[in-house]
């Protein structure tokens, strides 16, 4: 099973579980978008640290549901990350983890700008397996 499908299934199962227990309205997923501009001379190093941080977070943190990082085709130093957590508490736990702190300190000199945007999921659709 590929990673995207596995993550999507975890998100779907989590939401079904919450709906069945009547707690869905009290534990909405927390979604954040990070818009980052990276120093062009350090872009490859940044992406390497980012990859390790995202893979670790998704693998070891139950509250991390999805993390997607994309690079702008026309402006390759512009990275956008969409993060979905089981709850705001799961996000707050994430930023206290050793792997997040390694990412943050390791990329601090590489990041020229950072904009964090909290968003509300309007429609969350994932292709289901046939």
From TrEMBL:
Sample GO molecular function, one term: catalytic activity
Name of the molecule in the record: ABM domain-containing protein
PANTHER family noted in UniProt: ABM DOMAIN-CONTAINING PROTEIN (PTHR33336:SF3), QUINOL MONOOXYGENASE YGIN-RELATED (PTHR33336)
Species in which this protein is naturally found: Flavihumibacter petaseus NBRC 106054
Signal peptide: 1-24
Annotated keywords: Signal
Matches recorded under SUPFAM superfamilies: Dimeric alpha+beta barrel (SSF54909)
UniProt domain ABM: residue ranges: 30-123
